[in-house]
Write a structure and sequence with these properties.
Strand content: 15-25%
Order of helices and strands: HHEEEEEEEEEEHHHHHHH
Mean pLDDT: 79
Helix content: 25-40%
Oligomer: single chain
Radius of gyration: 22 Å
Largest sheet: 4 strands, mixed
Length: about 280
């Protein structure tokens, strides 16, 4: 499983893989490791995706794959998949993000630690770096502070803000499968009347999706389905799939398909919506 590092560990990515750790690494012929984005100009508030793709010439389940450090955009969840054929494997992880402010977004690199099968040496294979531009006019508040406050005061303010954020993150336990902040505790089960209301909201959202067939309708189905499953606001896809309300395999399949339709590219959106409608029929 891919692992994400914080700021301190990210500073260590320039170090070579140690001989001791090399004993734990896979021996691979790495054909390619690359980052791509669904758009070069994300729009504020509109989800977009970043995809990490790793190709090797061995039919193995990849280990020691590290996702890129992402600062700025809100992370909505991720989907990981692997394809295997004789003599090759493709690892792909899709991160769903949404930009909250205009300006330049720099994402990457991602990397893979492995023993290079060509020369037998442990290496760190790095991807490219994505630079995305979010349209809009940045506020002048920071520029005013930079122009009129002494540089030392500016640095102190930034340090205080970082300290507050760190304390808040440490106060929230992280789930075992990812180093991200956990959602609030799951609320008690809904009453029968509330559950009926949630189901009614889901049926209404699906009817709108069948009629409008657009991303806004898909997002409405996503919200109604998460509410029906009992997921708190801000839950990732992995959190939702762990809830008791998503235990049924047909419901889990619908949740994953709705997530895909909510953040798919424009070309893939019609087929993704068709998949949501088919899986919804299977759950009835």
């Amino acid at each position: 499983m891919a692992r994400r590092f914080g700021l301190v560990l990210l500073a260590l990515t320039a170090l070579a893989v140690s001989p001791t750790s090399a004993q734990q690494l896979q021996r691979l012929h790495v054909a390619d490791i690359a980052l791509s984005a669904s758009t070069a100009h994300p729009v504020r508030g509109v989800p977009f995706s970043v995809v990490l793709t790793v190709r090797v010439r061995e039919n193995v389940h990849l280990q020691n794959v590290f996702l890129p450090y992402i600062a700025g955009p809100q992370e909505l969840g991720d989907i990981r998949e692997e394809r295997h054929v004789p003599g090759a494997a493709v690892y792909r992880e899709t991160l769903s993000l949404v930009a909250r402010a205009p300006g330049l977004l720099r994402i990457g690199p991602a990397y893979l630690d492995a023993v290079d099968a060509q020369d037998g040496k442990p290496k760190r294979f790095s991807s490219n770096v994505l630079e995305l531009r979010v349209p809009g006019v940045q506020t002048a508040g920071y520029g005013w502070a930079q122009g009129f406050l002494p540089p030392l005061i500016v640095l102190l303010l930034l340090a205080v803000a970082a300290g507050v954020r760190t304390r808040r993150e440490r106060a929230r336990p992280a789930p075992a499968w990812a180093q991200v902040a956990a959602p609030p505790p799951i609320e008690p089960a809904e009453s029968a009347a509330s559950a009926e209301s949630s189901d009614s909201a889901l049926q209404s959202a699906v009817a709108q999706l069948r009629r409008d067939r657009d991303r806004a309708a898909a997002l409405r189905v996503r919200s109604a389905l998460r509410h029906l499953a009992g997921a708190p606001e801000g839950s990732t896809l992995g959190d939702v799939l762990q809830l008791a309300g998503a235990a049924d395999e047909r419901v889990r399949s619908l949740i994953v398909q709705v997530e895909h339709a909510s953040f798919a590219g424009e070309k893939e959106l019609p087929a993704a919506i068709d998949g949501v409608l088919r899986r919804h029929e299977d759950t009835r």
